[in-house]
From TrEMBL:
This is Beta-glucosidase. Residues 688-756 form the Fibronectin type III-like domain. It comes from Lutibacter oricola. It comes from the Bacteria. The keyword Signal applies. Keywords: Glycosidase, Hydrolase, Signal. GO terms for molecular function: alpha-L-arabinofuranosidase activity; beta-glucosidase activity; xylan 1,4-beta-xylosidase activity.
């Protein structure tokens, strides 16, 4: 589950790939003969109603009265059992032990009162931790993308696994592996950024931690959204080579057995009902043999939204025929499948296939054992000290220092600090979408408890780190946004946003601009905490642009006009424009949504207790253009980024030297070795994220102009030097052309850099040999490094 495991797996896959005859051999079997026999025995006694129940979900509220399970409602709503309880905890306000007892009560009903006696899968979101009250809230995924730290991500998701299993949950609708290349997309915050290689590596680390060594004690991951969601085009080459890659890695190397199609379309057809994408691409070409679950309401959307199905009956049949096995969040179209069979729109065999896969998954999770373990006994704590330490370390490693004229770390002789801005003392700028707090407040209009788990705002963190000798004066100065800055997508409930806005400012005084400017003029330094909050970004929440929302941009300019140094701390779920005043700020810190320990982490970076290490997993734009911006084809002269992919500053400096590598290699070679030295030439300890890029020399090459092909976090004490080694596989240059995966001989430039544009070392390599066709597709995705 650590970096070493990735290297061992990739080495194993490469070394055995030439012997493989089928793509299925790349992945562990979904079932066993013992499981098959058990499932067939169960299915032989099931009625159609009982089968249909296993391939749909239900919300827990549907079987509850006054916040507790109602057996009467269970008998009414799920008399034949149920496949899934959808997002079962993120809409509830139960304490951990209470939640476990609720799950046990529901499972007891299913196992004792229904004819099939099959337990349900309780699934939840998990990109920032278990989405339930009291559980550790980690930084949003885009922030973790900037950590470039697979080991830390695996530790985080392992802690999530333990929490979910303790409550009786066995399934996660995570990770989100969409590659995101425009800050205008409201869901970019859920991604690991713009690069296929980095997203694949971090996504695999996520899977390894959450699924554990075996699904019988792990939590099944669901990769979403398959495939190309959020992209602006459907170019097959880009789709196969890049957008598909993170899912393929999670399936082939991580053993993922659950995939969620996107809400989007491919070649004009809704993905959830797209046979080419879900059967040909996913199952036949990638070799996936698990369960495909629909995104919430997406099957119905083929009828009501996309208008590709004439009826709900047809919508269900189209999705089932294409390869979707389970309808979530609730049964709307799949309960009508008997009608679809009667109308010759689908077959009983396809229904049985979906039911079979659903039951195999339950068997793999241990739910079909004679005495399945549902939760863990005793009093539960979902945010123990070890988890909070992980949350703190994650926040520290997710925060990117974008600019620093020497003001940071804050000097010891500072006496007065003005802490201003809408995110200075609020927890609403610390929480990404699909955190428990965001979900219950936006989707269910229920206020969350900021002390369960304890959320540390910047004001609290800075006060504790600066101590009593420094006077901190605080004033918001402005609100997050103007009334019309954001809106909710049609059909999601127009009043959700207004209710959430009220919650965010409840109990706060009106912002006082004059006082903010007054205390700023009196200070030695201004810390301006600006940006977004959970109602300005996230699924279903759209903004007009990507500047600082509302009056915040003008507010920052007024702060700069005081003449005092401004340290800009930006929170939010996307890159936000700073080009108007970037040159006038003393420092800029991109904190994203840093989670429960965000205030302590930001403060420790500001005062120098922590040396920042994070580097951008996205390109930081310099204008409002909605066109995708991505480092892979180079940045054009008329669209230079504010900050490039891979960029991030430190409180020390690093020197690269002594690159050693061969000048020739063959397409049949297993690995191409290279090594170089990196030295910390500053006065403080630090960690450098070294990056390996490869660029084709020919102008006519069909490969990306520059492509990340390796990275490593290198911890270095002041003055220390280390040698870093990469071993690159020719399979990393595989291209999808005319329906084939091929490696073509050509000349490359290998680039070692501190970012995609800060290249420190270069060397040429000629890849010789004959064009090689990979009949079973690619099997090696990453370079080895040590």
């Amino acid at each position: 589950m650590r970096v070493l495991s990735i290297l061992l797996i990739t080495f194993f896959l490469f070394s055995c790939s030439e012997k493989q005859e089928k793509p299925e051999q790349l992945i562990s079997n979904f079932s066993t003969s013992e499981i098959d026999q058990k499932v067939e025995s169960i299915m032989s006694n099931m009625t159609m109603d009982e089968k249909l129940a296993q391939i749909q979900g239900i919300r827990p509220m549907e079987i509850m009265t006054d916040g507790k399970i109602s057996l009467e409602k269970c008998r009414e709503m799920i008399p034949h059992g149920i496949g899934h309880f959808s997002q079962f905890s993120s809409g509830l306000t139960m304490e951990p032990s209470e939640l476990r007892d609720f799950v046990r009560s529901v499972q007891n009903y299913l196992m004792t009162e229904t004819n099939s006696k099959i337990p349900a899968i309780f699934h939840e979101e998990a990109i920032t931790g278990f989405a339930t009250q009291g559980a550790t809230t980690f930084p949003q995924q885009i922030g973790m993308g900037c950590s470039w730290n697979e080991e830390l991500i695996s530790k985080n998701t392992n802690s999530t696994r333990l929490n979910m299993r303790a409550a009786g949950a066995t399934y996660a609708l995570s990770p989100m592996l969409d590659i995101s290349r425009t800050a205008h997309w409201e869901r970019i915050e859920e991604s690991y950024g713009e690069d296929a290689y980095l997203t694949s590596a971090l996504g695999l680390a996520f899977v390894n931690g959450l699924q554990g060594e075996d699904l019988s004690s792990g939590v099944a991951c669901t990769t979403k959204h398959f495939a190309g969601y959020g992209a602006q085009n459907n170019d097959p080459k880009e789709l196969y080579e890049e957008y598909l890659m993170p899912h393929e890695v999670a399936i082939k190397l991580g053993g993922v057995k659950s995939v969620m199609p996107s809400y989007g379309k491919y070649k004009g057809m809704a993905v959830v009902a797209n046979k080419e994408m879900l059967t040909t691409m996913l199952r036949d070409q990638v070799g996936f043999n698990g369960v495909v679950v629909s995104d919430y309401g997406s099957i119905r959307l083929t009828y009501k939204g996309h208008k590709q199905a004439k009826t709900m009956v047809e919508a269900g049949a189209m999705a089932l025929n294409a390869g979707t096995d389970i309808e979530l969040s609730e049964g709307q179209c799949f309960p009508l499948l008997p009608e679809a069979i009667q109308q010759n729109l689908t077959t009983l065999e396809k229904v049985n296939d979906a039911v079979r896969r659903s039951l195999i998954m339950k068997a793999r999770l241990g739910l079909l054992d004679e005495k399945p373990q549902i939760g863990v006994d005793g009093e539960l704590d979902f945010d123990p000290p070890v988890n909070r330490e992980l949350a703190y370390e994650s926040a520290c490693q997710s925060i990117v220092l974008l600019k620093n004229n020497g003001i940071l770390p804050l000097k010891k002789d500072i006496k007065k600090v003005a802490l201003v801005g809408p995110n200075a003392a609020s927890v609403y700028g610390m929480l990404g979408d699909y955190t428990y707090q965001s979900m219950i407040s936006f989707w269910w209009s229920t206020k969350f408890d900021a002390n369960n788990p304890k959320l540390v705002p910047l004001s609290e963190g800075l006060a504790s780190k600066l101590g009593d000798n420094v006077i901190i004066q605080h004033e918001r100065g402005c609100d997050w946004s103007a009334p019309l800055e954001s809106k909710v997508e049609a059909g999601m409930g127009d009043d959700r946003l207004s209710k959430l806005k009220v919650m965010a400012i409840e109990g706060l005084p009106q912002p006082d601009l004059d006082n903010a400017l007054k205390i700023s003029k009196e200070s030695d330094v201004i810390v301006a905490a600006v940006g977004e909050n959970i109602y300005l970004v996230g699924e279903g929440r759209k903004r007009k642009g990507i500047k600082l929302p509302g009056e915040q941009e003008a507010f920052v300019e007024k702060l700069i006009a005081t003449g005092k140094p401004v340290v800009l701390v930006i929170m939010g779920g996307r890159q936000q424009l700073v080009s108007k005043f970037e040159d006038k700020c003393a420092a800029i810190v991109q904190a994203w949504f840093p989670g429960e320990e965000g205030g302590n982490a930001i403060a420790d970076i500001l005062v120098g207790n922590v040396n920042p290490t994070a580097k951008l997993c996205v390109t930081y734009p310099s204008n409002e253009s909605k066109k995708e911006i991505n480092y892979k084809n180079g940045y054009s002269k008329d669209n230079q980024p504010q900050y490039p992919f891979g960029f991030g500053l430190s409180y020390t400096n690093y020197e690269y030297s002594d690159l050693k590598m061969e000048t020739f290699a063959n397409v049949k070679d297993e690995r191409i070795p290279l090594s170089f030295k990196v030295k910390n030439i500053g006065k403080v300890d630090g960690t450098e994220i070294v990056q390996l890029y490869v660029s084709p020399k020919s102008e006519t090459s069909t490969l990306n102009k520059i492509q990340l092909e390796g990275f490593k976090r290198v911890e270095l004490k002041a003055g220390e030097e280390k040698t870093v080694t990469f071993k690159v596989s020719p399979q990393q240059f595989t291209q999808y052309k005319n329906g084939e995966w091929v490696i073509e001989p050509e000349n490359f430039e290998f680039l070692i850099g501190a970012s995609s544009t800060d290249i420190r070392l270069k060397s040429d390599l000629e890849l010789k040999g004959k064009r090689k066709v990979l009949k079973n597709g690619r099997s090696v995705f990453f370079s080895e490094r040590n």
